[in-house]
Fold:
Amino acid sequence: MNLITNLGLLLNATLIATPPLLFAALGSCFSERSGVVNIGIEGMMTVGAFTGTVVAYFTGSWWIGFLCGGLAGAILATVHAIVCIQFHADQTIAGTAMNFLGTGLALFLCKSIFENSSDTPALPSTSTMPKLFAGILKVGTFSGNVFGGYIMSYLVFVLAIACWFIFYKTRFGTHLRACGEHPEACESLGIDVYKVRYICVILSGFLAGLGGSFVTLATVNQFRPNVIVGQGFIAIAAVIFGKFSPGGATGACLLFGLCTGIKTLAGMTNAVSPNLISMIPYIVTILALVLVVGHAAAPAANGKPFVRSR
Amino acid sequence: MKKKFNILELDVFYTILAIVIGFIIGAIFLVIAGISPAVAYGKLFSSVFSKPKYLIWTLIYASPVIFTGLSVAFSFRTGVFNIGAEGQYIVGSLTACVLGIMLQLPPVVHAIVCILGAALAGALWSFIVGLMKVKRGIHEVLSFIMFNWIAFYLSNYVVNIPIIHKEGGGEATKDVAATARILFPQSIIKLTDCSAANAGFFLAVIAAILIWIIIEKTTLGFKLKAVGFNRSAAEYAGINADASILTALSISGALAGIGGAVQILGMGGRLSQLAAQEGFGFEGITVALIGSSSPIGCIFSGLFYGAMKYGGSKLTMVKAPSEVINIIMGCVIIFIAISHVFKTLFKRFSRKEGK
Structure:
């Protein structure tokens, strides 16, 4: 094993670990910046992961599954949006409920459809997410490792750039950021705060659902309990780490992804306890926070229910 | 003017309403899945109420979640959000387990040492997060999530250390010394026919009462609540806000840590390698919410949760997915969160009736 091969393997592992977090984190940026805390990302990823697998299993098409995974996340997010925006519920509480509902629904439906089994059958390779340049680049070579990852591993970065563009270069982006800072002012200027927040929360669920179905359609090829294991919470952490901006969140997700990559590589040698290696991403985050990043100011109106004046 | 007793003013009324609606929605899902709700719910209730032994199991299941519920409720009341009860629970159970295996002490003393150790570990785990919050302004939700995972892997690491690990047997530690267990005497265990009957529930009730006294009757509680309610105003009144936040988080962490100890010294007896976070911390959030963040309320909501967990685990016997419990719980939380909507609605309705 030489340096180049190892670097290739590391990048490959990073490209597998980052996308689910990044999809969810970008979604979370929309929700948080518009002023709605969405702590239910984990539940939305889980329904996305389940729906994506089931749809791909029955239709044989990964991308229909992928989109339906996103839609499932969006449906759960709609409930969150109605409860938080229309009924002014405490957003943290509602998000906790979404996590219970999301994981509960996914496993409940899984057992109902697949005869009391909490795992779906494994997806045949024809209905999983294809890899870029499959058949052109050699598997195991440096270029194969770096450029031969799953399609969405690359497209997610295009999405990140698109999100940055929406946030800072469009009217809607200005509106959504303003809604998270001072909704009353927005309303006085004729911006429909409810509408902006609805769009953002539902979008956050959609992206979380995509992130979830990436896990099952690309990495794992199957839905089973604990397939998401806390990735939704890591995505939320990445957003806070990245100071609630799409660019910052992308950086934070890449850091997590890279640490997970290191963990995967180090795990191959078995020299150090895998449990200690698994702590790396979290300890690195803590150190980065304490030494470098410091205070992350949340949007001023984040988490505060906004009551429309009539 | 004499105030008329009105059921529509009571929080409990809306909590019960939310529970009823939760069960109705759960029933709808059961019907969709082709399972009779009557059969499933019948099994749920009979698994809890049909024998005294089952009721004791409910108490056993309830004990740790009452502790994590108290932990979260205490944090809610003092204006921080302890999403890290999971991690504090884990370090608590780990500490209790290690002390229970390594030390040799007389009965009762040993158990007390283990519980205090667990409380200290949980408090420390939470204190570090608090320190990062007050010194560096780091969002506590973020660091709590990180600390949950560090605790998780730390626990799995320690479980596999040779002196702690059970030789040859499975993915678990050795058994905790009998002196450290909080099991009831053999005579009571025989009488109740419940192998894990333990003092955990009584400890939980004592803790709930203590926390109620701290919050409602002491200057400390007043200070902590004041900082949580309005930090600037409290500081203006001469309260040290940073110290208050650290105290509140430490107490909250200690409670979750004791929850872990109670589970190990009571029911478990040893610590297993974890495949995923067990969720006691997140269940604590639910318990705190259903109990309206009141320590005494947490006893009842913890019992409710314990019953649902224990009863839910028996649902597979009638081929119903036990996850229906999560769906019901999720709905209950939602309807508690929007109970103010019902309140306005009912009041408007009853006013019309009165005319």
